[in-house]
């Protein structure tokens, strides 16, 4: 049997796409290998969100040159966002590549690999194609949690982001195809699903008849075997009261929301084209906290966006302290080709970005430590997903609010179980506990 080695960079959507591609190629008789030196086909699933991510891919391709010299039959492919964005430039800069294809062509990966073999020349496939639901995935008996794409693309055109150019406009999958996929996952033993979309809470607006994320969550809730439902990434612009109520009322929906803020300054938000103000965002947070008491919140932030002054940055810090996020992901702004912000003249010096990022992370860590400490003594439901990395005698899992918990399971086999755990100690980024 031929062997496939997959290298994945970037977000959860890419992880998910890689699994789908492996599933599709599995049908074409490729089995996965961890070793690139024994592969017949190497696929790199790429990310274009930051320049650094792209450079990593080119340096990896440089490393693969030697393998190709040893095994001229080896096929090397580049897929995903960077493939969609750079297209032929990848073949020019890295002649070792045989195949470049974007997300819309993913469902035809088997056919594209065959074309490379047959035509013995590089193949480029980055055109638009109708949205196809790929349900084939790798069968991994040890897995409990699955990602399920419910929509692709984005129409928002934030001035820093390449997604509208790499993933196209917002398109939703039909509810029935999503539910069928999740029923299949439940039968394989999966207990938790995360519904994925770049703007997941805009789900269904483009469907006829129109659907919405709240209704989809209610339907997933009916599927026997699935115990937890999460979704990401939500956009404040599309956050509805109906979705907030679903978070409160649908038993399997976890009380956790990732809601990107990006900046706490109205001036910067407007230049980012985010479509909301700081006041509107705070209004949403208040409504969320009133509807779902105790909801855990996380966010994404960009520091050093072009033109960001110290005062703008302080406005972000103030928002972070005010909202009190349970966790956050902060990044230095990085210029992406084809995006308007890359051309803004008032780029912020790297040293300022680095200093601001350090300060923001310090603030965020202090809040997280405080929030974790408040959980000491509480009993929390944990989905057991393995053993602790530090102490293999301890079990590990996640709470409904997505916190990592390591706990003494009293020597019991609890993998895949939902168990009550009493929190005994709060660490900066995780919790410790014991079976309640
Ligand atoms: S909403 Fe998200 S995916 Fe869409 S352009 Fe903005 S940052 Fe990118």
Report on this model:
The chain is α/β, with parallel strands linked by helices. Among the domains are: 2-125, Response regulator (Rossmann fold); 379-435, Nucleic acid-binding proteins (OB fold (Dihydrolipoamide Acetyltransferase, E2P)), CATH 2.40.50.140. Helices cover 35% and strands 22% of the residues. It contains 13 helices and 19 strands. It has helices at 12-27, 51-70, 81-86, 88-93, 109-119, 163-166, 175-187, 213-221, 241-249, 266-272, 278-291, 310-323, 350-373, and strands at 2-8, 30-32, 41-46, 75-80, 99-101, 123-125, 145-149, 151-152, 171-172, 192-196, 228-232, 256-258, 296-303, 327-332, 379-387, 395-399, 404-408, 418-426, 431-435. The strands form five sheets. Strands 2-1-3-4-5-6 form a six-stranded parallel sheet, sandwiched between helices. A hairpin with a 4-residue loop joins strand 18 (418-426) and strand 19. Helix 8 runs parallel beside helix 9 (241-249) and helix 12 (310-323) packs parallel to helix 13. The longest helix has 24 residues, at 350-373. The N and C termini lie far apart (48 Å). The mean pLDDT is 92. Iron/sulfur cluster (SF4) binds next to helix 6.
Biggest sheet statistics: 6 strands, parallel
Major sheet: order of its strands? 2-1-3-4-5-6
User: Would you count the extended β strands for me?
Assistant: 19
Q: Estimate the strand proportion.
A: 15-25%
Structural class: alpha/beta
Look at the structure and give the CATH class of the domain at 2-125.
Alpha Beta
Specify the overall morphology: globular
What do the pLDDT scores average to? 92
The CATH homology group name of the domain at 2-125:
Response regulator
Number of helices: 13
| Terminal Cα span | 48 Å
Unreliable stretches covering 5 or more consecutive residues: none
What is the annotated CATH architecture of the domain at 2-125?
3-Layer(aba) Sandwich
| CA-atom Rg in angstroms | 22 Å
Q: Which compounds are bound in this model? A: iron/sulfur cluster
Please give the share of residues in helix. Answer: 25-40%
User: What do we call the CATH topology of the domain at 2-125?
Assistant: Rossmann fold
């Amino acid at each position: 049997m031929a062997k496939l080695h997959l290298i994945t960079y970037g977000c959860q959507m890419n992880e998910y796409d890689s699994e789908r591609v492996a599933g599709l190629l599995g049908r074409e008789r490729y089995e996965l290998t961890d070793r690139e030196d024994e592969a017949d086909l190497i696929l790199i699933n790429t990310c274009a969100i930051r320049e650094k991510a792209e450079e990593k891919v080119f340096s990896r391709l440089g490393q693969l040159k030697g393998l190709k010299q040893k095994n001229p039959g080896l096929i090397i492919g580049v897929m995903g966002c960077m493939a969609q964005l750079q297209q032929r430039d990848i073949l020019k800069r890295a002649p070792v590549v045989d195949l470049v294809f974007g997300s819309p062509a993913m469902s035809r990966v088997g056919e594209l690999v065959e074309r490379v073999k047959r035509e013995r020349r590089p193949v480029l496939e980055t055109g638009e194609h109708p949205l196809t639901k790929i349900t084939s995935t790798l069968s991994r008996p040890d897995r409990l949690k699955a990602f399920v794409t419910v929509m692709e693309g984005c129409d928002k055109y934030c001035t820093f982001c390449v997604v509208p150019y790499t993933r196209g406009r917002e398109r939703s999958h039909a509810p029935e195809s999503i539910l069928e996929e999740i029923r299949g996952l439940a039968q394989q033993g999966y207990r938790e699903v995360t519904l994925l979309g770049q703007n997941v809470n805009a789900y269904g607006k483009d469907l006829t008849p129109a659907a919405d994320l709240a209704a989809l969550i209610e339907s997933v809730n009916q599927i026997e075997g699935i115990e937890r439902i999460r979704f990401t990434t939500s956009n404040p612009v599309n956050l509805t009261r109906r979705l907030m109520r679903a978070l409160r009322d649908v038993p399997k929906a976890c009380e956790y929301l990732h809601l990107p803020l990006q900046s706490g300054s109205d001036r910067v938000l407007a230049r980012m084209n985010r479509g909301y103000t700081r006041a509107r965002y705070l209004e949403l947070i208040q409504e969320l906290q009133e509807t779902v008491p105790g909801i855990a919140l996380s966010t994404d932030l960009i520091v050093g966006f072009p033109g960001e002054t110290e005062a703008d940055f302080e406005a972000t810090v103030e928002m972070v302290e005010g909202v009190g996020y349970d966790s956050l992901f902060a990044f230095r702004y990085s210029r992406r080709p084809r995006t308007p912000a890359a051309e803004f003249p008032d780029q912020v010096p790297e040293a300022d970005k680095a200093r601001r990022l350090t300060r923001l992370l310090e603030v965020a860590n202090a809040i997280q430590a405080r929030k974790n400490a408040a959980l000491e003594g509480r009993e929390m439901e944990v989905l057991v997903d393995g053993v602790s990395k530090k102490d293999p005698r301890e079990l590990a899992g996640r709470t409904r609010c997505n916190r990592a918990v390591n706990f003494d399971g009293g020597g019991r086999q609890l993998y895949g179980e939902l168990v009550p755990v009493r929190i005994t100690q709060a660490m900066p980024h995780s919790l410790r506990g014991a079976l309640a």
